[in-house]
Design brief:
The protein contains five helices and six strands. By secondary structure, the chain is of the alpha/beta class. The strands form two sheets. A four-stranded parallel β-sheet has the order 2-1-3-4, sandwiched between helices. Strands 5-6 form a two-stranded antiparallel ribbon. Helix 1 crosses helix 5 and helix 2 runs parallel beside helix 3.
Length: 158
């Protein structure tokens, strides 16, 4: 039985697109720093990382789709922070953003990583953006590299 299991170090040069939401930028900028740190620590030069800033989380899927369709990237990392407020807006945004990001990956056949925090409060977001719960941007960067390598291995039957 053949098993595919990729590693985290790029097996070839890779280019990574990142979509980051400006809304809650004090959180998303930390996620972006974590993602860039994860990528560069694992061999991706900063020149091979391109970032597109969008107004908010709801706009992430469209920008991710454009990046994925461009053919310039091996993976797209989506970063944002949606924090529950006093209205039902939170549920709508979280549901549509997660569905949209998943759909982009399926349609493009490209790894599209979900690094959008969906938190009950600001404290949870801060914890996931580089404090005691780690940095989800960093985690997405590693998942992106693993998925790029895995897709390559499957395509080439390695």
């Amino acid at each position: 039985m053949k098993t595919f299991s990729a590693n985290l170090l790029p097996e070839r040069p890779v280019k990574i697109g990142v979509v980051a939401a400006r809304f809650n930028e004090f959180i998303t900028s930390r996620l972006l720093s974590g993602a860039v740190d994860g990528l560069t620590r694992h061999g991706v030069p900063e020149d091979d990382i391109e970032v597109a800033w969008v107004p908010g989380a709801f706009e992430i899927p469209l920008a991710a789709k454009k990046m994925a369709q461009s053919g310039r990237y091996d993976a797209v990392i989506c970063l944002g922070a949606v924090i529950r407020g006093n209205t039902g807006h939170y549920e709508y945004v979280c549901a549509e953003v997660s569905k949209g990001i998943a759909q982009v990956g399926l349609e493009a056949g490209l790894p599209v990583l979900f690094g959008v925090l969906t938190c009950e409060n600001i404290e949870q977001a801060i914890e996931r953006a580089g404090t005691k719960a780690g940095n989800k941007g960093y985690d997405c960067a590693l998942a992106a590299l693993e998925m790029v390598n895995l897709m390559h291995d499957i395509e080439t039957n390695r």
